[in-house]
Structures are given as structure tokens and as C-alpha cells.
Amino acid sequence: MELSDSVAVEQARAGDSGAFRVLVERHSRNLFRLAYRMTGHQQDAEDVVQETFLRAYRQLSKFDERASFGTWLYRIAANCSLDLIRVRKRRGAQAEAAAEDAPDPMQSLPDPSPSPDRLAMSGEVERKVAAVLEGLSEMERTAFVLRHYEGMCIDDIGRTLGVQPNAAKHSIFRAVQKLRRALEPLLSSAS
Amino acid sequence: MNHLTEEQLVLYYYGEGDGWPAVREHLDACEACRAEYASLQRVLNVVDSVPVPERAPSYGEQVWNRLQPLRRWNGARGLSWFPVPRWASAVLVAALIVAAFLAGRYYPKAQPPARGQIANAGQVRERILLVAVGEHLERSQTILLEVMNAHPGQPLDVASERQVAGDLVAENRLYRQTAARTGDARVATVLDDLEPVLLEIAHEPDRLTAQEVENLRRRIEGDGILFKVRVLGSTVRHRAEKDAPAAGRNTGQGTL
Questions:
Q1: B chain contacts of residue A90, beta-carbon cutoff 8 Å
Q2: Which of chain B's ends, N or C, has fewer CB atoms near its CB within 10 Å?
Q3: Rounded CA separation B161/B141 (Å)
Q4: Facing B14 at nearest CB: one of A87, A147, A179
Q5: Per-residue confidence (pLDDT) for residue B253, from 0 to 100
């Protein structure tokens, strides 16, 4: 029978590495998606996933078993991503990281074989979205990613980021405004 | 009639807040707000189209495997996965790898084997060393990140990091000397830069004050050491991966 998260956490706390492995295997892909949305780079996302489990492992004794383990991991991953973004910004290494790690946006286009015009537009939109997300403040980006892509409610986002729900809400509003400003002209011209 | 605000529309889109029945009612009645909402929907739907590189179902297993070399320093609190003294195993493994590499490279052979065999054996040894150096850099990077990611203005418990840093210093010395001997100046230089930082961490007290954390962070940042370690680690990994299939067929001899 499959171990539930709470049982696996309990066993991992008791020293069972196999139980921790279950948690790693179960949550890695979701964490990668979140980290990629947050950092925009594959290698950074990989680093975040690894760092998240290291931190989770070290702080396992602090985890409140009444909470959801997945949400707790998300919180750690969001913070790891923010740390990494800060370090990257401080070091001014963003350009190198982008050149080294960023997937070619044209390669990652969806593959329903649309017309060349539509394909070009789709690539343009993706680039624009990526650029806007990159330009958001840390708080805006995290709050938006958690709300839009991960479907987390605003109260949980506030808890994850350690801010009032209102602050999380306003970060989401600002992110949406910036996306609209950048994308609406493009979409209008397409339609 | 007041129109809906953008905030109301965003909350409605995400199903948040408790005013959505009123918003729904308003949208049914107001064409301007309906158009505004359609425009918002279009933008947010488009945002979904940006793809995320998909990870294979075995990705979790890969992550678990990558965590293995790091468990020894990380498992100190709460869980005990490593009953063997950590410094002993780390240094022993490093010493064996370096010794095997040097023995293979310098030990005189009574009967010289064919040229291709020498080159092949040399490449295999070099690949083993590359993998070991890559892992060493990865572990060093994790320690440096721990300091860099500490919350500003707060003290930091570095008891376990100190211990690992002590192990890494010994390994670092061996790898640096080997790199210098085999003429790999780039690797030797980065390891040379890394050593004093590891040494410093190894000699810090178990608990750093906020000021000590800040000093250490400045030192790491000022030297750009984390970045160098990261870039070299990535290069070394690529080389090791590239050399893996080549070890069996190439005859050229590279450096570390």
C-alpha cells in the first residue's frame, strides 16, 4: 500500500531513509515545475529542488504534522528560489545563466503544427511573458506563480511568503497589471 | 451603475473572495465589464501557454540519487544515516582516487602495453578524477550557498557545515596538487581560491554572529568564489559526461 505523506514524514523522522525517499520521489516533479516558473532556468530549478529537500530534511523535526507536507515543501522551494534569484541578481550573473541554461524558446513551442504566423506569434507571446515574469519583483513573481500556476489560495500564499493576505493579493494584482500591459497590444494585433 | 474594478475581476477569475455572485450578476448585465473581463481572461489564458520542460517519471529517483553524496553532512541533525566517521571516509576516498590516478600515470611499467591501451587507461583514470572533482565542487558549493542564503542580520548555526568544510579542505588539497601536477591550471586556480574559504569556515565557531556571517558572505562574494565553483563544476561535469563514451575509443590524453 502506498505510504501517505504524513506516515512517510513520521517514519523519516524516526530515521527511515526509505520513507524520506518516498517523499522525494513523490514531490520532485511538482517542485521542479514551481522552481522553473520561479527562476526561469532549468539548472537553477534543479538546484532549487535539491536544496529544498536538503532543507526539508534538516528541518523535518520542525514540520507541523497537522499541515500539508506538500504546502510546506512549496514554501521551502519558493524561499530557495527567491534566495537563488537574489544571489543571481547580486552577482550580476543573470546573463551567463541565461545563456547557459535557458531553453531555446523556439524549441519549447507547443507542437500542434499551427500556421507560420501563429507559430511566430506564439513564440513572441512566450518571450514576452517570460520577460514580464523576469521583470516582476520577487514578491510579485512568487505570489503570481503560486496563485496562477500552482492554484494556491491567497491566504496560503500569504502564509508561504510570511506576509498578510492583503499584501499577497496586491502583489498578484500588480503582476496581472504588468502582464496585461505587455500582452494586450500583442493579442489585439493578432485578433 | 459602478463598473467592476480590475481587482474584482482578477479575484473573480481566480475564484477568490466572497463577492463573486455579485460580480457574476454584474457581468451578465454590463457589456463593458464583460469585455474587460474577456480581455483579462485572454491574457491570463495565454500566460498558461508558456511550457515548462517536462521531467521524466523517474525524475524523483534522479533527485534522490543526487542527494546521496550530500546526505553525509546534512544528516547530522535528527536522522543518522551515516554511522562511519565522515571525515575518514571522505578523505580516504579522495586519497585513493588521487593515488590511483598518480600511480597509473607515473609508475614505470615493466612491459609497455600497446599505445591505445595506455591512452585508454589514462582516460578512464582521468574520468574518475573528473567525476570526483565534480562531486567535490558540488559539495563545496552547497556549503557556500548555506552561508550566502543565511537570513541577513541573523546568527547562523554552522556546526555541521564546519565539519564538512574540514573534510573538504583535505580533499581540496589533494585535488589541487593533482591538478597542478597534471598541468590543469584552471582547475588548480579555482581550487586554490576555494581552499582558504573552506579553511575559514572549518575554523569558525559552531554558531556565527550576524556580523561574522556578513563578513564571510562578503568574502565569498568579493572573491566571486561561488560563481567560479559553479562554472567549473558545470564544466567538469560536462567533460566527464563527454569523456564517458569517448574513454573507450579515443587515444588523445587530456588534462584534469
A1: 221
A2: N
A3: 11
A4: A147
A5: 38
